[in-house]
Request: fold
Amino acid sequence: MARWICSVCDYVYDEELGDTAAGIPPGTPFGDLPEGWRCPGCRVGKEAFVRLEEEEEEEINEEEYL
Ligand SMILES: [Zn+2]
Reply:
């Protein structure tokens, strides 16, 4: 499950938790949120959100190990 952060107010939408206050059940992927869904923090639309990576991965070029 991914997490998404609002670029305006830093609210984090966690797919694992959903947004129960807005009737979004836990486990709802960000892509499945209704178009009318708004950030609970600042009311911007989904387009203002950016995906948070699960882990900070350093850029490792696997080919170097072959
Ligand atoms: Zn926001």
Q: What stands out?
A: Strands lie at 3-6, 12-14, 49-52. The first strand starts at residue 3 and ends at 6. The pocket of zinc ion is lined by residues 6, 8-9, 11, 39, 41-42, 44 (CB under 6 Å). Residues 11 and 40 are 8 Å apart (CA to CA).
